[in-house]
C-alpha cells in the first residue's frame, strides 16, 4: 500500500499542511475525480525562523541594515513524509525567501511589462538578472558605480544572476566553446567577446547579486554523444575556477550547476564531483530543453536524491504549472522561467484551469475578471472585455496581463492550493499506471520561450 503526500500552501506566510491520501488504484486517469482523494490527516507546521530571518522591506535603507547577515542559510520548515516535497525558509542577505519559490526573470535590470514597485507589491522576494546581457550593456563598471544591480534597479530584495552559460544554447550560432571559455559574437556590434569562468564571476561580483551561478558548459538536452560528457567534465573544472575567482564569498553565494544531459551515469558522476565542493547551493541544469517528460523527471529525481538535504536546490528554466508541482514533489526548491512574462505579451493569461487567450473575440463582452479568485491588481480592477479592447490600441493590456501572470506564478501557494492535490495525484496515477504521460504539449516550446526572451 502506498501513501501519497501533499504539501499545500495558502495566504502568503507559512501555512503548511500535509495531506496523506489512501493508495491510488491504477485505472484510467480520465475517470479520476476529487472524491477519490481521501484525506486522512492534517498537520499544521512551524512558523518562520525566529531571529534568523526577516521580512522583505521596501527601502534601500533596510537593505543596508541587514546586509551584514550570513550570506545564506536554509531552514527546512516542513517535509512531505512520502514525496520529496519540502517547505523551507532561505535566508539571504536582503530578505528571507519562502520556498518553493518561482523567480521571475529580469533580463536587463527590469522585468518586461512590470515595474519594480509592482513587483514588490506582488510580494516577489527574489528575481533574476542576466549576466551576459548586463555585461554587454550597460556593462559591469557602470552598474558597480550604482552600488550594484540592486542600486541600479532600486530593488531592495534578493537577486540571482545567471552566468551567461545559457547563451551557449540560445545564441549557439554566435558562440564557440573552448577550455578557456566561451567566445560570443556580439549581436549588437559583431565584436567577439571571450567569457571565461573568471570573467563571469567578476561581472557577477560587480552586479552584487545574492546568488551567483557558475559558468557551465551548457548543451541542449536533446544533444547526445561525447559532447555531453565533455561538457559535464568541463563544467566541473569551470566550477573550481569560479570558486577561486569569487571575490565576495562572504556576501555572494555561488551555486554549482549539475550537468550530464539525460545520461544517468554522467549526471551521477557530476553530482559526485560537485557535491565534494563546499558551495552554498546547487542547480540542476541542462534540462527543460524539449526532452520527453519521462527523461526529464528521471534526471530531476536522480539529482535531488544525491544533493545535500541542507542546501537549496534550484531547477533551472522550469515554469509551467504542472512542471512546478511535479518537481516540487521531486524535491526542488527554486524555479525560474520567462514563460509568464513572455506569454502575457501574446495576450495569454494564466489561470488554474489553463490559460485565457484574451485577444479572442469571445472575451469582447466578457465582464468577468481574468480569474474571479485572483487578488492581483489587474483582476481586482479590470474585466476580460476591457483587456481585450486594450489590445487593439494600447500596450497597456500586456502590462496588466503580465502583472496577473507574475502574481499567479510568484504567489505559488495560490497555485498549490488550487492544483497541487489534483495534479500530484494525476502524476502518481500516470507514473505508476499503464496510462503514462506522453510529452507535455509545452515541452518543446519551453526552451523556445526562454530563448526568445533571453537571447
Ligand atoms: Zn489576477
UniProtKB/TrEMBL annotation:
Zn(2+) binds at residues 374, 376, 379, 404. Substrate binds at residues 162-166, 216, 259, 286. Its EC number is 2.4.2.64. It comes from the Eukaryota. The keyword Oxidoreductase does not apply. Keywords: Cytoplasm, Glycosyltransferase, Membrane, Metal-binding, Mitochondrion, Mitochondrion outer membrane, Transferase, Transmembrane, Transmembrane helix, tRNA processing, Zinc. Coiled coil: none annotated. The active site is at 162 (proton acceptor), 336 (nucleophile). The chain crosses the membrane at residues 411-432. The keyword Acyltransferase does not apply. InterPro entries: TGT, TGT-like_sf, tRNA_ribo_trans-like. Residues 317-323, 341-345 are annotated as: RNA binding. It holds the Pfam family TGT. GO terms for biological process: tRNA modification. GO terms for cellular component: cytosol; mitochondrial outer membrane. Catalytic subunit of the queuine tRNA-ribosyltransferase (TGT) that catalyzes the base-exchange of a guanine (G) residue with queuine (Q) at position 34 (anticodon wobble position) in tRNAs with GU(N) anticodons (tRNA-Asp, -Asn, -His and -Tyr), resulting in the hypermodified nucleoside queuosine (7-(((4,5-cis-dihydroxy-2-cyclopenten-1-yl)amino)methyl)-7-deazaguanosine). Catalysis occurs through a double-displacement mechanism. The nucleophile active site attacks the C1' of nucleotide 34 to detach the guanine base from the RNA, forming a covalent enzyme-RNA intermediate. Heterodimer of a catalytic subunit QTRT1 and an accessory subunit QTRT2. PANTHER family: QUEUINE TRNA-RIBOSYLTRANSFERASE CATALYTIC SUBUNIT 1. Belongs to the queuine tRNA-ribosyltransferase family. This is Queuine tRNA-ribosyltransferase catalytic subunit 1. It comes from Sinocyclocheilus rhinocerous. The gene is LOC107744982.
Amino acid at each position: 500500500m502506498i501513501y501519497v503526500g501533499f504539501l499545500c500552501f495558502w495566504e502568503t506566510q507559512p501555512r503548511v499542511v500535509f495531506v496523506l491520501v489512501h493508495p491510488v488504484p491504477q485505472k484510467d486517469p480520465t475517470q479520476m475525480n476529487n472524491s477519490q482523494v481521501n484525506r486522512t490527516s492534517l498537520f499544521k507546521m512551524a512558523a518562520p525562523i525566529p531571529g534568523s530571518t526577516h521580512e522583505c522591506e521596501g527601502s534601500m535603507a533596510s537593505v543596508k541594515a541587514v546586509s551584514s547577515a550570513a550570506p545564506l542559510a536554509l531552514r527546512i520548515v516542513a517535509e512531505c513524509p512520502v514525496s520529496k516535497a519540502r517547505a523551507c525558509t532561505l535566508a539571504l542577505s536582503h530578505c528571507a525567501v519562502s520556498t518553493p519559490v518561482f523567480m521571475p526573470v529580469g533580463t536587463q535590470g527590469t522585468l518586461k511589462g512590470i515595474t519594480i514597485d509592482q513587483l514588490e507589491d506582488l510580494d516577489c522576494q527574489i528575481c533574476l538578472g542576466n549576466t551576459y546581457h548586463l555585461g554587454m550593456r550597460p556593462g559591469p563598471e557602470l552598474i558597480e558605480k550604482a552600488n550594484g544591480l540592486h542600486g541600479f534597479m532600486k530593488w531592495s530584495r534578493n537577486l540571482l544572476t545567471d552566468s551567461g552559460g545559457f547563451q551557449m544554447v540560445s545564441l549557439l550560432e554566435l558562440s564557440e566553446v573552448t577550455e578557456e571559455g566561451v567566445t560570443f559574437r556580439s549581436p549588437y556590434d559583431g565584436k567577439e567577446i571571450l567569457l571565461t569562468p573568471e570573467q563571469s564571476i567578476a561581472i557577477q561580483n560587480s552586479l552584487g547579486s545574492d546568488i551567483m551561478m557558475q559558468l557551465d558548459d551548457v548543451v541542449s538536452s536533446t544533444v547526445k554523444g561525447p559532447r555531453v560528457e565533455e561538457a559535464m567534465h568541463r563544467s566541473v573544472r569551470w566550477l573550481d575556477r569560479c570558486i577561486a575567482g569569487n571575490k565576495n564569498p562572504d556576501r555572494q553565494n555561488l551555486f554549482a550547476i549539475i550537468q550530464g544531459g539525460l545520461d544517468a551515469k554522467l549526471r551521477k558522476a557530476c553530482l559526485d564531483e560537485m557535491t565534494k565542493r563546499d558551495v552554498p547551493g546547487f542547480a540542476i541544469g541542462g534540462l527543460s530543453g524539449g526532452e520527453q517528460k519521462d527523461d526529464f523527471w528521471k534526471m530531476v529525481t536522480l539529482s535531488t536524491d544525491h544533493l545535500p538535504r541542507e542546501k537549496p536546490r534550484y531547477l533551472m528554466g522550469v515554469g509551467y504549472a504542472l512542471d512546478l508541482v511535479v518537481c516540487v514533489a521531486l524535491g526542488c526548491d527554486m524555479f525560474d522561467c520567462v514563460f509568464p512574462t513572455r506569454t502575457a505579451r501574446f495576450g495569454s493569461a494564466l489561470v488554474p484551469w489553463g490559460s485565457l487567450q484574451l485577444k479572442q473575440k469571445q472575451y469582447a463582452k466578457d465582464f468577468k475578471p481574468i480569474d474571479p479568485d485572483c487578488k492581483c491588481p489587474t483582476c481586482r480592477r479590470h474585466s476580460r472585455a476591457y483587456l481585450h479592447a486594450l489590445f487593439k490600441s494600447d500596450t497597456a493590456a500586456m502590462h496588466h496581463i503580465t502583472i496577473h501572470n507574475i502574481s499567479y506564478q510568484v504567489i505559488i501557494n495560490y497555485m498549490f492550493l488550487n492544483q497541487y492535490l489534483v495534479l500530484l495525484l494525476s502524476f502518481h496515477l500516470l507514473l505508476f499506471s499503464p496510462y503514462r504521460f506522453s510529452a507535455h504539449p509545452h515541452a518543446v516550446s519551453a526552451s523556445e520561450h526562454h530563448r526568445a526572451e533571453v537571447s
